[in-house]
Prior knowledge:
- The chain is built from seven helices and 14 strands.
- The chain is α+β, with helices and mostly antiparallel strands.
- Strands 3-4-2-1-14-13 form a six-stranded mixed sheet. A six-stranded mixed sheet has the order 5-6-7-8-12-9.
Amino acid sequence: MKIISYNVNGIRAAIAKGFLEWLQQSDPDVICLQEIKAMHDQIPLSEFEKAGYLYHYWFPAQKKGYSGVAILSKIKPNNVVFGTGIEHMDFEGRNLRVDFDAFSIMSLYLPSGTNLARLDHKFMYMDDFQNYVMNLKQEIPNLIICGDYNICHQAIDIHDPIRNAKVSGFLPEERSWLDIFIKSGFVDSFRHFNKDPHQYTWWSYRAGARANNKGWRIDYILVSKTIENRLQRAVILPDAKHSDHCPVMIAIE
């Protein structure tokens, strides 16, 4: 099974940049989207069905043009869960899960800490999400959590770790949380296969950051250690340019 995670920074804008054509060429079995920034009636649902994704689930934020996640699948899931049941998380449309026989796949869009108020909200979200996942693992041990975590884990995951040491997304507290979260029973699928530096998934639109590869790796597919031995491949797909992020992909048995 091929699984892709992609923060599209607006599904309508991505479609205008050729996203649907790219999706058909990439041909994942499941794709998790973040930051769709659209309500159901603003999304050309039939176009996704024409592309082969008969099973598509959208969880927009209540605020128009903001946040939101989706999962598109060629395989019918056994169950679909919209949100976490935690109001401040679900209000912004940040979590969606589909359950299959062998594992469950989640699309996650963790908040960014753009200012002090949002940073406090981000930390609250991180703590609540960790508790939610720890409880969920009692019921569903085989989890694949795809998404934009808005955190660089280690210095290797950011182009300038020294200058960004006090910037949200690379704060010691954020990095420590992600480290603890991964060590609670997950595998960073990309780093499982690739230890090289200069591998990023997000670039600022400013100052030619993407052309100069001055980026951040903040998009992950974390896989439960219980199914680590099924991982066959994990890559970043920087040639996809429908967003300020690029997709990440795994192949799993």
